Amino acid sequence: MAYGDLYWESVAKTTGPTSLPKNLPKLVRNKILAQFKGTSETIKHYLTSYASRTEQKDHIMIIEYGTMMMYQLNPVNKTYTKFDMMCMMDDKMGEIAKDSKVTPTNETKKIAGYKCKKYDVTMMGLKSEHWLSKEVKGYKEFRKISKKMEKRFKKNPRLRQMSMAGISGEEGFPVKTVITTMGMTTTTTLKKIEKKSLSKNLFKVTKGYKLVKLPMPLK
Questions:
Q1: Whose CA is closest to 102, among 129, 68, 66, 80?
Q2: Which of 36, 37, 77, 106 has the smallest number of CB atoms closer than 10 Å to its CB?
Q3: Distances (CA, A) of 174 to 109, 112, 151, 203
Q4: Is the pTM value of this prediction over 0.90?
Q5: What are the distances in angstroms from CA 81 to CA 59, 70, 78, 200?
Q6: Residue 13 located in a structural domain
């Protein structure tokens, strides 16, 4: 089966916190509120049939689908960590995954030019809303790759539970997500998307980065 490569950008805006301790000094309160007011970041996504890459200002994540290895790069200090996703789920995470679920709603609205449907998601005790659309250019490619990943996850039932509790791709392409935690709300909205050929070098650890061990082994 042939797949097309996808590249898209989304903008994440964080606001809050909505509530702070009443006894907090006014100067400290204003400083905290000012720090988060209007904070935004552009996130870049690269997706192929064999790997994915997500770029943020101080964090890069690469996942190889063939080996199911995840690489997390720190562009600030030029270091990276790696671990096998098929071995990353412990018993505690497995129990959390059982309580994760997706609830479709009847709410629809147009976002970024696409007709979207709202899904409420509960995962790891965190509630979020996802607005998905099948009108997005590249949705067919996104769904094909998602199906391929679902087959890989079958080898690790707990990891599959985690992925199925999130948005698998069947419902639509993620146009907007809203996550609220500890009084802060992060809204991520699709900015642009295009189908284009991506270099395999994007999915390799950049030369000059040093491998560092994780603080503790993942079971």
A1: 129
A2: 106
A3: 13, 11, 21, 22
A4: no
A5: 11, 8, 11, 20
A6: yes
Residue 176 lies in a domain: yes
- 20: helix, strand or coil: coil
The residue assigned the tokens 């903008």 is 11
Beta strand pairing status for 79-84 and 69-74?
antiparallel
CATH assignment of the domain containing 97: 2.50.20
Under DSSP, the state recorded for 195 is E
Question: Which of the 8 DSSP states describes residue 160?
Answer: H
Boundaries of domain holding 102: 6-211
* Tally of domains within the chain: 1
The answer to whether residue 1 sits within a structural domain is: no
CB 40 within 8 A of CB 55: no
DSSP string, 87-122: G---HHHHHHHHT-EEEEEEEEEEETTEEEEEEEEE
CA distance linking residue 202 with residue 55, whole number of Å:
10
- Is the residue at 48 inside a domain? yes
Q: Could you read off the pLDDT tens digit of each residue along the chain, which spans 219 residues?
A: 456 899 999 999 988 766 666 676 777 766 666 666 667 899 999 999 899 999 998 899 999 988 889 999 999 999 999 988 877 555 444 555 556 778 899 999 999 999 999 999 887 777 899 999 999 999 989 988 888 777 766 666 555 544 544 456 778 999 999 998 777 788 999 999 999 999 999 999 999 999 998 765 444
